[in-house]
Amino acid sequence: MSNKANKTTDKLVALYEDNKADLFENSSDFINQERKIAIDYFKKTGIPTTKNESYKYTDLEPVFANGYTKFFERQKFNVELNKAFQCQVPNLDTYTVLFSNGWFYEKNSEYNSLPKGVILQSFQKASKEHPELVEKYYSKIAKPNDDSIVSLNTALSQDGFFLYVPKNTIIDKPIQVINLLRSEKDLMVTQRNLVVLDENSSAKLIICDHALSICRFLTNTVTEVNVGENAIFDYYNLQKQHNLTTQLSSVFIRQKKNSNVLTNTLSLHGKLIRNNVSILLDDEGCESNVFGLFLADKDQHIDNYTFIDHAKPNCHSNELYKGILDDEATGGFNGKIIVRQDAQKTEALQSNKNILLTDNAEMNTKPQLEIYADDVKCSHGATIGQIDEDALFYLRSRGINEKEARMMLMYAFAHEILKKIRVDSLDVQLIDLVESRLRGEFSKCDFCNYNVKAANCPK
Amino acid sequence: MLSIKNLHASIDGKKILNGINLEVKPGEVHAIMGPNGSGKSTLASVLAGREIFNVTEGEILFHGKSIFDLNPEERAKEGLFLSFQYPIEIPGVSMVNFMRTAVNEHRKYQNLKPLSAQDFLKLMRDKKKLVDIDSRLTNRSVNEGFSGGEKKKNEIFQMAMLEPKLSILDETDSGLDIDALRVVANGVNKLKTKDNSTIVITHYQRLLDYIVPDVVHILYNGKIVKTGGKDLALVLEDKGYDWIKNGNY
Ligand SMILES: Nc1ncnc2c1ncn2[C@@H]1O[C@H](COP(=O)(O)OP(=O)(O)OP(=O)(O)O)[C@@H](O)[C@H]1O
Ligand SMILES: [Mg+2]
Questions:
Q1: Superfamily of domain B2-245
Q2: What is the whole-number distance in angstroms between the Cα of residue B193 and the centre of ligand 1?
Q3: How many C-beta neighbours within 10 Å does residue A73 have?
Q4: Separation of B29 CA from ligand 2 center, angstroms?
Q5: pTM of the model
Q6: Ranges of each domain in chain B
Q7: Contact A402 B84 (CB under 8 A)
């Protein structure tokens, strides 16, 4: 570790030590045990620097070095979030769960209409009310001593959501988790989610990340998902914050026999975004679809790291990430795929395509394939290019002005990812949203309607 | 309509057009023929405003105005249309969206209101009939996965949608089967009025049996080396280009 990284790490460890009493008080022994393992590991390894192979495109030290407030207890707000906040996606009928600064909003409406046996509640509450479930799955695939960002999350996290879908249960509507950040000081938020789908069940999660106040926010979120036999799980993450936010999101998914998973990470706005998507194909016949779209401009930075672990035979993974970088924006894609010796008849496809709109934008892309089985079909490819000039001329030659023609081509490029969305109405809305983002009309047309006055952070 | 005077153009320092002169009057059909690589498509691209070519000398007047002040989209809206020799595939841009945008940009230029969804679809239907193009194609992305012939049909479909004053058809006949050739040629003829003009670039007399030219030019080494009536195409069909290449014209 460098000196600077050391110092920042020490500060974070001190934060843990100083607030240990609060952290431990509201969690079970089991969870606190994991905290200890996690903080020990974090102490040892520290904030990942660019020397760390899987973080080589993103320097996290400066981000953590900025001082943040962190709340170790649920804050009270004098606004009714349910009323103040409305998602404006028309015709998108969901079970909505609001979060405020990483805490499950206590006034979330009761989910009476959820199918019988489904649990959807605050993680903190779940760890007390359903310890057997939580302890069976918590911290198992997001290990406390593997990636130090996950360790930090394990050490500091207190709340998040817990979703349990029992056997043979299909949740009729998507569950939409809306994460709102509101503060008057720079704020660090650590959220921890756990999802368990028993066999033959199905659930779709839509996570929307927004920042309402003009403060520096750092969110470090870890989500563990266990997908049972024959279960179907969709995960959409719409990341739309602002130019002062850092978002670290790590999703771990373990798939059981014949399960089907789709993840789609849509990074539309944020100063620094780092996504880790880690998928373990832990039994035969699984299908994984791992998609992502990222749009960055100004000095934004977006880094996607994916790890697909083909541990068992006859599984199919299909990965596609696309990015458009404008101005001085930078991006990274690191796609690791391991096909274990046992994993015969694996089919693993990976592709990363990027468009740079300026000479100053920069993209780093690295596929990383390790194949130990012999009967497999794997392919990977990466492209970094500009807008196709032939296509541009073709459109213009029909009377379409250059700006519009560029828009159409960028939109077409992005559309390949958007059309993979398996939730009605969401695709249509996101298409509009991406289009307005590409047109640079982002601030004018907002996805969500907040009646909460945005606060400015005093410096 | 169109007046080209002493046009020189190059790409990457390589001279391709070497002093072209051409006058096209309203209502006329001109054919341009010439061996591979002689500069036919380059001329078409320069007319349409492709910026990769450098015009080093000469002028092009379209309706009496220099075309060099206009970018490709403005030329299109002034009524110039190029049917590409190699139409571009654009995955993710639907034909419908493409054409709606193009038609409405033309209308805006003419101070007309955008077409309603209904009127637009009706226009699409009518023009599809004209070139006998399948809805299966127009419901897809622009040219994506179209066969060679289907792409050419699609060019003429777009021409029908935009109703240009001057159409340049760059080897629209190549890749078309005999029936499709007849349909496409009939389409072009139906779009013909006494005011609009057509430049047909082709290697074969076959097309000129359907679209009968008033004037035939032979382009060679970036220059028009011979101009004649429609019989000139027959001579070429008969004798090939050797006599041109040997300078016996
Ligand atoms: N983008 C380009 N870069 C470099 N050279 C080019 C380019 N486009 C055309 N040329 C060259 O210019 C010359 C004329 O090409 P052009 O396509 O205009 O010929 P053409 O008459 O249309 O031929 P064909 O009958 O084969 O279609 C050729 O030598 C060609 O290689
Ligand atoms: Mg040509």
A1: P-loop containing nucleotide triphosphate hydrolases (3.40.50.300)
A2: 31
A3: 11
A4: 18
A5: 0.89
A6: 2-245
A7: no
